[in-house]
Task: structure prediction
Amino acid sequence: MSERRSYGLWIGGRDVPALAGRTFEVENPATKETLAIVAEGLEEDVDRAVEAARQGAAVWGRSSAEDRFHALTRLAERIRENLEELARWETLATGRPIREMRAQMKRLPDFYEYFAAVARVAEGSVPPFIGPYLNYVRHVPLGVVGLITPWNHPLLILTKKLAPALAAGNAVVIKPSEFTPTTTLDLARLCQEAGIPDGVVNVVPGYGPTAGKRLAGHPDVRKVDLTGGTETGKVTAALASGHLASVAMELGGKAPVIIFPDADLTQAEAGAAFASFIAAGQTCVQGARLILHEDIYDRMAEALSRRARQLRLGDPLDESTQMGPVSSCRQFDRVMGYIQAGAQEGAVVLAGGEPVTTPPLDRGYFIAPTLFGEVRPEMRIAAEEIFGPVTVLMRFRTEEEAVSLANASRFGLGASVWTRDVARAHRVARQLEAGIVWINDHHRIDPAMPWGGFKDSGIGREVGLQAYHAYTQTQSIVVNLGDEPFDWYGGSQRYS
Ligand code: TXE
Result:
């Protein structure tokens, strides 16, 4: 490995060492080589960052909507100019193919531009008020907010939180995943170059139980917005509510992909493969449960197995690579554990089911894309989030059965329905317990689309106008328009 970078914390617009002087290594999951040495923030570093953010919030929170519009628009531009470099480093740290990361990086400016526009056009309201009063309602920033992000889509997930938070006038302290902190630190620098004042965007890389926990529990943090595992979400939300901070939690998923026999089966097959294996299955809306009508089960199982076997695994920086390794040793062990559990529970391995041992891929955490057939809902591989290139196939007979299989999960984030029957598509979509349902597609996202889950998949929504408003609090200002004197203790009757 020729390049190895080193990073400090990013506090108050400066790259600074951690107070205790500790560092940690970021590994390339395709080769297990060290990519970067990064300062490890501890509790006292979070405290420093929150203090810097308090000062940043005082400036940014008072800035005009027009200034925020221009700064976020410039940030979108800076990202476009640095797209290739950001994509390359996301690929190096996550192991995801460069083709995927380029496509994902290209979407980031859309989010900053959308929320720049929202900041520019957002209006307050004037609700009716009984009596000679004018009540106008302003949406004011929360102040300092904590963003805790994972390793699977480091910049996209950060952007879904950062763009509305900044547009609404908040200052942020970001605790990126310990596996993938580098591009978040790069983005913080781009924020500075875009003219966002120092102190508005702060980054404290470090671990969950130290830096993450302190950020969630810090009394000056007014909102905690986290994407991660369901257990982490529960612990973090409890910490935040200890000081009445609001929360947004985007957590685990086990998305069903329901395919009816009247679907365009060529498209459904391509869509199911895309849903299952993009990001090596490490996405919260991965098509993890393919629910197939019995008439097409065998045909689909065969076609998807063929596709899984044909996926090109390789060096993630190679343009022709279609799937990289899973993101870390921990993830590798977890996914392999589930694969073993599936086989023990009696599911049939249709494709994959083992690590890739052909050199040079044996150097990294590569797992062959895996499909399990004859899966029952109570099996662990059907019920729990695996978060890897593993998908299970189940069969149904009736529409009711398809819906009930899809809903038989503690999660409720994404789902897709594949059919040409318009009425059925909507009828099924409305019955699904999921925050996002695609019809004849999967994985699509837009900055205007509220994104988040039902049940154990979380609380609150990212992006969309809803997310912007959730980064504000209302202030009612009530003006007395009357000229009638009022003295309650002098005998005035009017009270309301
Ligand atoms: O996530 P964690 P992990 C799911 C997926 C995956 C599992 C575990 O099933 O296999 O979670 O992944 C920070 N207080 N998802 O362990 O730990 C942590 O440092 C405060 C789904 O990598 O939840 C990181 O910054 N923060 C998911 C962030 O939380 C804490 C994406 C997420 O890490 C903390 C990732 C604590 N006590 C994993 N503990 C999705 N919804 O897309 C950890 N963190």
In short: The chain has a mean pLDDT of 97. Residues 148-152, 175, 177-178, 207-209, 212-213, 216, 226-229, 232, 235-236, 250-252, 284, 334, 385, 387 surround TXE (CB under 6 Å). The radius of gyration is 24 Å. The first helix runs from residue 43 to 60.
